[in-house]
């Protein structure tokens, strides 16, 4: 089923899902044509359709983005059965004011000199498509624990959203009901 929603409603939903997720996996395309994923700490920024990361401007990640700017960012909170994947276009930003605005002190673990770190840049991902999975439980077990122990029933809501330059949003929602053994015809 496809519906049109306003972009801001979807951004608000995605923000609510990812705001407590402190680590993302960023996937780029290597020069050899292989997918390359690595954990990243997002910059201090409230999701507004863009995701920001601090990186070294001379790192392989920047080289990969200069060659192929399409990327994927994924987040997960398995304890809450929430999963988000964001696809978009990445670009490298060197604006000093933006660096200062988005800096987080915990990034000193990777950039010991803080904002004075040589070659420090921002990576901005302009999101144009997102998918998320969020469990609506009829038992307290959760998606993965239910899959492992196969007890109870639950619904897993999966939405895929994308928006155009006109800010119209196409959304596809699928709800899959899964049941315990013995209820083979659950749909």
From TrEMBL:
Stored InterPro entries: Split_barrel_FMN-bd, Stress-Dev_Protein, YdaG_split_barrel_FMN-bd
Domain General stress protein FMN-binding split barrel residues, every copy: 9-139
Domain of life: Bacteria
Database matches in PANTHER family: PROTEIN BLI-3 (PTHR34818)
Protein name: Pyridoxamine 5'-phosphate oxidase
Organism: Anatilimnocola aggregata
């Amino acid at each position: 089923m496809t519906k049109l929603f306003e972009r801001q409603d979807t951004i608000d939903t995605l923000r609510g899902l990812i705001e407590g997720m402190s680590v993302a996996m960023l996937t780029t395309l290597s020069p050899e044509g292989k997918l390359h994923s690595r954990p990243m700490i997002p910059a201090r920024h409230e999701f507004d359709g863009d995701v920001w990361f601090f990186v070294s401007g001379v790192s392989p990640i920047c080289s990969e983005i200069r060659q192929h700017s399409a990327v994927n960012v994924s987040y997960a909170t398995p304890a809450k059965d929430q999963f988000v994947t964001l696809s978009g276009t990445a670009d490298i930003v060197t604006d000093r004011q933006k660096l200062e605005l988005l800096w987080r002190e915990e990034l000193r673990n990777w950039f010991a000199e803080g904002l004075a770190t040589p070659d420090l840049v921002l990576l901005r991902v302009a999101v144009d498509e997102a998918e998320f999975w969020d469990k609506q439980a009829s038992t307290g077990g959760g998606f993965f624990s239910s899959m492992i122990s196969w007890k109870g029933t639950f619904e897993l809501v999966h939405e895929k959203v994308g928006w155009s330059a006109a800010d119209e949003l196409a959304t596809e929602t699928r709800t899959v009901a899964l049941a315990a053994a013995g209820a083979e015809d659950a749909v």
